[in-house]
Design goal:
two-stranded antiparallel sheet
Length: 340
């Protein structure tokens, strides 16, 4: 059986034309996508112009992008979460951004880059405020030891309520830096951002300064409490100390004076806390406790008088000229028969 050999036109139709079509499709695809890669995090992570290590990329002043992941180390969900948290800080008047990059700079050069980035981008809530914060992650190209986590703060960025410069450095050293060394960069950045959100939103502001009377009360209240407590506890001990040695401690523990001393000491402590700490609830406790104590003492006295009979009263009869009569008891004791 003879197999027909394809001609030149047939070879072109079978092989050459499909290959040319595939090459043409590839060239068109390259031309379409040569303008730039598709960024899955559009609006969250911004790809700035390629610049040398020591130059600052441009940024629009009205930009609402707060996460610049040039090193491409954050996932899309992580970048979106940081973008949301940083937006809350910007709304609270704390301009903060996250910037990641890969370079050959040392740690000292990374610190200088973060400071220049904050200054040239004018990260501040108002012109001249100088209250911006830059969280820079600088990954070295060749040496991992040169990786740097830099927190660049403006002159008036801190304190944020109770978040002072010392506390911010402590957060970086104890929480952010260990996670950064384990290459958990997202966790390290989350520690810093969430701490700022916590101190901004959940920490009460500093109390107003004390007046002269409050300063004087703070100086005198501890001494007054010490004297009152010593007097309240020492008085029943001294009074019961004259009892026989065999029953001395039992007499002290059973005495009502010790209980009263404890109540008085507690009320004194409550009053001291109310004055020293400027606490309204402790003031109410001390006032109500004093009222209850006074009413309790009066009620206990009335209860004892009602339960116990009146003591025997001697009635002296008028003197007679002839003879003297013996005194007569108001309540004669019952006669006891001596006969069994």
């Amino acid at each position: 059986m003879t197999v027909p050999v394809p001609t030149t036109r047939a070879w072109r139709a079978i092989v050459v034309r499909p290959v040319m079509i595939v090459l043409l499709i590839g060239m068109l695809s390259g031309a379409l996508f040569a303008s730039g890669p598709i960024d899955a995090n559009a609006g969250v992570r911004t790809s700035l112009q390629a610049t040398p290590d020591d130059s600052i990329p441009p940024r629009a002043p009205e930009s609402t992008t707060f996460v610049y992941d040039e090193a491409r180390i954050l996932a899309s969900t992580e970048a979106e979460r940081h973008q949301f948290d940083l937006g809350r800080l910007w709304q609270a008047g704390i301009p903060t951004i996250i910037y990641t990059r890969r370079s050959n700079d040392s740690r000292e050069q990374a610190v200088a880059f973060a400071d220049r980035l904050r200054e040239e981008w004018a990260l501040e809530s108002s012109p001249g405020a100088d209250d911006g914060i830059v969280m820079l992650v600088s990954l070295h190209e060749s040496s991992r030891r040169e990786n740097a986590l830099v927190l660049s703060t403006g002159a008036h960025a801190l304190p944020i309520n109770q978040l002072t410069s010392e506390r911010f450095r402590d957060i970086r050293a104890r929480e952010m830096q260990p996670a950064f060394r384990r290459n958990e960069i997202n966790l390290a950045l989350s520690f810093g951002v969430r701490r700022m959100l916590y101190y901004e939103g959940y920490t009460p502001p500093d109390p107003p300064p004390l007046t002269d009377r409050q300063v004087t009360a703070r100086a005198l209240v501890p001494s007054a409490l010490l004297l009152a407590g010593t007097f309240a506890i020492g008085t029943p001990l001294i009074q019961r100390g004259r009892a026989p040695s065999k029953n001395r401690w039992g007499s002290i523990l059973r005495s009502r004076g010790l209980y009263r001393a404890g109540i008085v000491g507690f009320l004194t402590l409550a009053a001291g806390l109310a004055l020293y700490g400027r606490s309204g609830p402790w003031l109410v406790v001390s006032v109500l406790g004093g009222i209850v104590l006074m009413l309790g003492v009066r009620f206990a006295r009335a209860w004892r008088e009602w339960r116990q009979p009146e003591p025997a009263v001697l009635r002296v009869a008028p003197r007679s000229r002839r003879f003297r009569q013996p005194p007569v008891l108001a309540h004669r004791p019952p006669r006891v028969s001596r006969h069994v």
